[in-house]
Design brief:
The chain is of the alpha+beta class and about 260 residues long. The protein contains three helices and ten strands, in the order βββαβββαβαβββ. The strands form two sheets. Strands 3, 4, 5, 6, 7 and 9 form a six-stranded antiparallel β-sheet that branches.
């Protein structure tokens, strides 16, 4: 006889995935853990570019703007270990006019990235930057310096809670856990084993008492704010929050 019990709880963890669901009696439990934190890491990216019929003129303007951006990052105490400037990228710039390709000049591009551990420092930097066609702020991203440690904590918490949940379910059904078959961060697909898939939604299952489907894992990076072509008002920047979420799907073997 095959027994499957699906449970949803607040926890999350990741270990490995299995290629199939066991044929012997088992419990399948799902956990999810989430924590909301205040960002403590702020990254700004610049696109520096110039196009000119004289390649040296384009290169000179790009290098001048890159030097200015790097000086501003240093002035406002950007994290030195996270400051990055790409190498030169050179290509022909063409445009179509009246159905014909027209050469516009040589385009030179470099990208610069800097990070801050304080939002006020980033605001001060932006107040010094005049964006335009040749110097653009392409993105602003917030992050959390201890994200890896936090995710590990959530995964460990999920593993513990999924075990407790399985033990409680086993006792409720008059069974006992005999071993762990698999634990994974990939939602099981009942037709093809434990691999990428989605759980049946409450509306498709047994009504209001059905277990809701798992939430997808949180993205590694928080949402970015795109800015281009103008100065960004420092007062428009807000710290906000970041929510980290981890899921776990564990299969425990059971016996009467």
């Amino acid at each position: 006889m095959r027994v499957v019990v699906v449970a949803g709880l607040g926890a999350g963890a990741v270990v490995r995935t299995s290629n199939s669901i066991p044929s012997q009696p088992h419990l399948l439990v799902k956990g999810q853990a989430a924590r909301t934190v205040v960002p403590d890491h702020f990254t700004v990216e610049f696109l520096v570019q110039a196009t000119d019929m004289a390649p040296e003129q384009a290169r000179s303007r790009v290098e001048r703007n890159v030097a200015a951006v790097l000086a501003a990052l240093k002035k406002h105490r950007a994290l030195a270990e996270n400051t990055y400037a790409s190498s030169l990228s050179i290509s022909a710039e063409n445009a179509y006019e009246n159905g014909k390709q027209v050469f516009k000049g040589t385009k030179v591009v470099r990208r610069v990235r800097g990070s801050f551990d304080d939002l006020e420092k980033l605001r001060a930097l932006l107040a010094d930057v005049d964006a335009g066609p040749e110097l653009q702020i392409t993105s602003l991203r917030s992050g959390y310096a201890k994200a890896s440690t936090l995710r590990a904590e959530l995964k460990a918490q999920a593993a513990r809670q999924s075990r407790h949940s399985a033990e409680g379910l086993a006792a409720a059904y008059g069974t006992r856990i005999t071993g762990l078959y698999t634990i994974s961060d990939v939602a099981p697909n009942f037709a093809y084993g434990v691999q990428a898939g989605t759980w049946q939604s409450a509306s498709e299952d047994a009504g209001d008492d059905a277990i809701p489907p798992p939430s997808p894992p949180a993205p590694p990076a928080p949402a970015a704010m795109e800015v281009s072509g103008s100065r960004l008002a420092p007062e428009s920047l807000e710290t906000g929050t970041i929510t980290f979420t981890e899921n776990v799907y564990a299969i425990f073997l059971i016996a009467q």
